[in-house]
């Protein structure tokens, strides 16, 4: 059984706008998967379904063997940790330590156990030194890594990141990538940053029109110029996917991805 299974999920907003149209995807434990697609394709709507901020009109979402319903949402949210595009949406306490402790404390962690969780989570993202600082005094890249620590503190089965490289300077982008490469947690990353997807994710999906239209190794997806163009995706000028060594440690080898364009 896959760690995450989305089957025939449909969703329309109250004004009647249909966003997800029978979307199917399956992700196994330990995979790092990028979700690509043009604006309005349904990517963010899918993420909001996974943490049940939005609920499907039909279809099912199963996480670690638990179907996501109103009754199971609290337990599933422990298993899916989402890092939002803007870290300020997640950092609201006076100190970094309090932000990282917030989730585990709400689920009953106390005393030495809680402090151990905080210390371990900050160490995972290289932010131990800022434990006592106010989040709003940190740089954008530092806040992004602290936001990641708040999610890792819950020991999620699946880590979901929405545009993780947005608004980061080159150093912050690299530092975050180094952290993410070292995680064994199953990772789903929605991004318009195609080189970042290649660096961090061995597999990519393209979502367009509310459905998965391509699924395959990231290097192969990004080497298909016609596929990218048909879904309004563009590589940076002069960027060659075949020249990049990604998470697998091997240069990309172009081939035909599965799916349709």
Explain the overall architecture.
With 261 residues, the protein is of the alpha/beta class. The protein has one domain (4-259): P-loop containing nucleotide triphosphate hydrolases (Rossmann fold), CATH 3.40.50. It is built from 9 helices and 11 strands. It has a 7-stranded mixed sheet with strand order 6-7-8-3-9-10-11, with helices on both faces. It has a 4-stranded antiparallel sheet with strand order 2-1-4-5, covered by helices on one side. Strand 1 (4-12) and strand 2 (18-27) form a beta hairpin. Helix 3 crosses helix 4 and helix 5 (140-152) runs parallel beside helix 6 (170-181). The chain is globular, with a radius of gyration of 18 Å.
